[in-house]
Design brief:
It contains ten helices and no strands. α2 (26-46) packs across α6 and α2 (26-46) runs antiparallel to α7. It is 58% helix and 0% strand. With 212 residues, the chain is mainly α. It is globular, with a radius of gyration of 18 Å. It has helices at 11-23, 26-46, 52-61, 77-91, 96-107, 120-134, 146-155, 161-173, 185-192, 201-206. The longest helix has 21 residues, at 26-46.
Length: 212
Amino acid sequence: MDPMTLIPDSRLAAAATELVRDTTSDLVYHHSRRVHLFGALRGRALGLAFDPELLYVGAMFHDLGLGEKHRTSGRRFEVDGAEEAAAFLRAQGADEDAVRRVWTAIALHTTPGIPAFMEPEVALVTAGVEYDVLGIGYDDPTAVTPEDRAAIVAVHPRPDFKRRILAAFTEGIAPRPDTTFGNVKADVLRHFVPGFTAGDFVTTIRESSWPE
């Protein structure tokens, strides 16, 4: 099977593709398409009944919150991307359950340990991100064979991807460092923003206004 056939052939998917292609970099576009494809392959291997269109929208919008227009929002970039997806889906006439699932998939895609226990679309956006960014599952051909991976990367290449995606993360979240408290993006700023000090949960408790 050609893994590219896992891209939904629908009006909704085409509209999502056009919006993301027009508003993001090649880096984010190709990464987002790979996230969908790797997530869909993982879903097929697990026998999950997922909605291909909702998985596609979740994957395509999951990093939109890194864009320049969101960098002064004061919110986590995941929430900004989730809100973009929700607005898009409502404009396309999607029902509120679809909106909720996609919103949740995007909002939680950097929160490991939780999405896997939620709806398939939520679980598989995270699975696709983890495969493409972290390499989780790379050495297990059960879901993604080396042949499938090569076919996907041939269409959606990843030149210098590790360095470039870390730079994109840094650019997208450095203007709002407080939003990294308690999440994995604090590690990005710790490595790439001189003088950044991550928030500390224990210190926050000890220094709260409570007298005891």
